[in-house]
Amino acid sequence: MTITTLSSREFNQDVSRAKRAAEQGPVFITDRGKPAHVLLTFEEYQRLTKQRRNIADALAMPGVEDIEFEPPRVRIEIRSADLS
Q1: Which Gene3D superfamilies match (predicted)?
Q2: Domain assignment of residue 68, yes or no
Q3: Which of 12, 13, 28, 34 is the most exposed place for a label (fewest CB within 10 A)?
């Protein structure tokens, strides 16, 4: 893993370079010489935070309204309890 450090100015002038560097490891972006931000690939971010998509997140994704889904209806009947 390679750690790259860029100033805010360098980052603004060459975002593509920062994105390429993030493929090799984190990119620290400094502001007036002090670390201010970290650029990671999305996969690395998910690995670090151990994020897993849950059903609520999946249903909130754009385009999900275009998916046709008709689940079968389930019929639940009430029955008397046999306490014998």
Answers
A1: YefM-like domain
A2: no
A3: 34
